[in-house]
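Input record, target 12 of the design panel.
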């Protein structure tokens, strides 16, 4: 026990002398979590605060085109700019490419007339003899170009689909309103009352959004709940840069050979490094979680709500940290130079993070990549944290994730022992 304690003190002193390494292990995760959470929070609040800029060129200037603009403004997704000048490709390009607006909508001339005639045609066909529905309808005489949506190429596909869906819903409201009016006038020979029109068009069955929770808590998760645990895991595993390099330096300096001449087992040195760096990962998580909980509200970010099961949080943090330490030691054992350790360690962690669902949510990954989720320890750590932070579960609800993480850790430890014996280090 005395030898183990002396080895721990030695490793602590070596770690404390590496001030740059300590700075990187603590400052970089904090900066990383703050930046990623800020970006993700901006995305979450896009509808409420950072609206998409949309410039509308109205070549119709009739009742339904003006009503379309009003419906688009009600959606709440856009910051509207109405342009009265003539539409040209150069004019649109100057708006879009100069980033005055991300999206431009061109309403063609004859838009109102086309919608009305289309509604009248549908109403007429609906009230006509059913046998005539199989006959080819007479094409409309009035033609109009389609609505044209121009967008900046920097806009991601997900946002573009959201914009397209919002604009389509506004057009469908107009078409539905025009069809209902024509049908009512054809049947009752008078205009439809406004209250009935509103009841038909806007009296849809309500949908309530309710987040599921094991504890019954219905709090909607925020960007901090999603990002802080995920990138804390990433920071833990990135100690491979420091610990892997320490292992390589000790091998190359002959420390392992000298240890074999002492009346002590090399396992003392191995357990010492595991203990010291496990403490580092635990402190990393503690610092990041406290910053998320206490500091985030002061810098305009949603506070990280800690789970009710603190013992579950401690257990997941320790198991995740131990897996990260084990992986870092394994990389250090097999690497022959610090460059190999740092290069392979950093790239492998990025790959495991991608496979584990940290970079892209697991449900959004291609089906062939989802098969590899189980091989990434970061996936099981993330699922365990999400079970506590998002679902509101307890330790008994996430035990399968913890067992999977422990199983991967055991395999890493066995592989490390194999490497030590193969290289005659023990």
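The sequence produced for target 12 reads:
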């Amino acid at each position: 026990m005395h030898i183990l304690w002396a080895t721990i003190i030695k490793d602590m002193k070596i770690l404390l002398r590496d001030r740059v390494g300590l700075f990187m292990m603590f400052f970089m995760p904090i900066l990383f979590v703050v930046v990623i959470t800020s970006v993700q929070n901006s995305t979450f609040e896009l509808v409420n605060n950072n609206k998409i800029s949309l410039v509308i060129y109205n070549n119709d200037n009739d009742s339904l085109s003006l009503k379309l603009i009003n419906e688009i403004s009600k959606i709440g997704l856009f910051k509207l700019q109405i342009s009265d000048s003539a539409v040209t490709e150069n004019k649109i390009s100057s708006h879009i490419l100069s980033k005055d607006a991300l999206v431009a909508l061109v309403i063609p001339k004859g838009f109102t007339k086309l919608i009305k005639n289309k509604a009248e045609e549908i109403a007429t066909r609906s009230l006509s003899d059913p046998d005539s529905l199989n006959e080819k309808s007479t094409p409309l005489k009035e033609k109009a170009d389609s609505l044209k949506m121009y967008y900046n190429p920097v806009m991601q596909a997900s946002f573009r689909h959201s914009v397209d869906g919002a604009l389509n819903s506004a057009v469908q409201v107009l078409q539905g309103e025009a069809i209902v009016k024509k049908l009512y006038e054809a049947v009752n020979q008078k205009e439809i009352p406004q209250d009935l029109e509103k009841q038909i068009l806007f009296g849809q069955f309500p949908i309530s959004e309710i987040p599921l929770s094991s504890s019954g808590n219905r709090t909607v998760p925020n960007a901090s709940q999603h990002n802080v645990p995920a990138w804390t895991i990433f920071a833990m595993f990135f100690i491979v840069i420091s610990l892997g390099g320490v292992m390589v330096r000790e091998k190359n300096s002959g420390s392992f050979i000298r240890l074999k001449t002492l009346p002590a087992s090399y396992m003392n040195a191995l357990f010492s490094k595991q203990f010291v760096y496990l403490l580092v990962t635990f402190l990393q998580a503690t610092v990041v979680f406290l910053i998320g909980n206490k500091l985030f509200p002061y810098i305009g970010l949603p506070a990280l709500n800690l789970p009710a099961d603190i013992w579950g949080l401690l257990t997941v943090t320790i198991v995740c940290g131990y897996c990260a330490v084990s992986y870092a030691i394994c990389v250090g054992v097999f690497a022959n130079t610090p460059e190999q350790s740092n290069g392979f360690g950093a790239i492998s962690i990025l790959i495991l993070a991608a496979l584990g669902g940290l970079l892209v949510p697991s449900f959004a990954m291609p089906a062939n990549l989802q098969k590899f989720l189980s091989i990434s320890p970061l996936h099981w750590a993330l699922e365990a944290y999400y079970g506590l932070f998002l679902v509101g579960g307890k330790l008994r609800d996430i035990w399968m994730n913890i067992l999977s993480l422990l199983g991967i850790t055991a395999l890493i430890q066995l592989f490390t022992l194999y490497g030590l014996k193969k290289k005659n280090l023990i």
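Residues 2-44+216-422 form one domain.
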